[in-house]
Design goal:
By secondary structure, this protein is α+β, with helices and mostly antiparallel strands. The chain is built from six helices and 15 strands. The chain binds fe (ii) ion.
């Protein structure tokens, strides 16, 4: 599955690019399902805007609950730029959704099929996950012209384990280009410190600073332009971000965040599971 060179790339650079990991048919099935979920979204019941920005007040509480409950459900979040100043959508609903999250891989049969199987299990083992646990799935639409930026971060900060184990499986559902907001990574940056951690206490969440090492500048980062069907697998410590989509084409992507059961999953992580909804691996 991985050549010795690819294994070395994963270890040295913190990421490996695997073109053609998913077939056009698998991508189309997933995309159709994502579009159907977005189209069925109850727009009037929840106009929550997905944002990592701090917000306060009753509306913020509602947004926070919607977000927290999404940990173990299938929910849609809007692009921040989806609405005009009067709260009216500037484009059709189907082109206004930022992402679907965060438990489709367990709750939706189509997403479950895409997210499990021997091929992924084999890759997980190669990249060092002894007992994989898939905590989160996200389908990211990165809509034409309004698809927002995702700031520099390390996924470890959201799925903290001791020792670090989170590994990200990032599937390009569309071609990802500079114009439509491909991800950028800092090769080798996974060997640096963890800068921030996102923790939850009851209904409260906060991002705390752990290390003031600056985020990479664009001259030490590289864009990961890939064709649809490519899997980018990366170490959770790898700094990465994606630019806004300034093009007229969507950039759909699907991600799984996976930790190793042999490591201790922090009780402060925002996604937790109960006994009646246990976290599972790739099989
Ligand atoms: Fe990320």
């Amino acid at each position: 599955m991985l050549t010795a060179e690819q294994k070395n790339q994963f270890e040295d650079n913190g990421f490996v690019v695997l073109p053609g990991f998913k077939s056009p048919g698998e991508l189309l099935t997933l995309k159709n399902r994502a579009n159907a979920i977005a189209a069925a979204h109850d727009f009037d019941a929840s106009k929550e805007v997905f944002s990592t920005s701090a917000q306060r007040g009753p509306q913020a509480d509602r947004v926070q609950d919607y977000f927290l409950e999404s940990a173990n459900e299938v929910r849609c979040f809007f692009e921040e730029k989806a609405f005009d100043i009067n709260g009216v959508l500037k484009q059709p609903l189907a082109q206004s959704i930022n992402k679907i999250g965060h438990a489709m891989h367990d709750l939706d049969p189509v997403f479950s099929d895409f997210s499990h199987g021997g091929k992924l299990a084999e890759l997980a083992e190669i990249v060092g996950l002894q007992e994989p646990q898939i905590w989160q799935s996200m389908y990211i639409f990165k809509q034409p012209r309004i698809g927002g930026q995702v700031d520099w971060h390390q996924d470890t900060g959201f799925f903290y384990t001791t020792p670090q184990s989170v590994t990200t499986f990032w599937f390009a559902v569309d071609d990802a280009t500079l114009e439509n907001g491909c991800i950028w990574v800092e090769p080798g940056g996974h060997k640096g410190p963890l800068r921030q951690k996102f923790i939850r206490s009851g209904r409260q969440t906060k991002l705390i600073d752990l290390d003031d090492t600056p985020w990479p500048e664009t001259d030490s980062a590289v864009p990961v332009e890939v064709k649809a069907g490519t899997l980018v697998c990366f170490n959770g410590m790898l700094p990465h971000y994606s630019a806004p989509n300034t093009s007229g084409k969507a950039r759909h992507a699907y991600t799984l965040h996976v930790t190793d059961e042999v490591c201790v999953y922090a009780p402060q992580n925002w996604i937790q599971r109960s006994k009646d909804f246990p976290v599972r691996g790739f099989i």
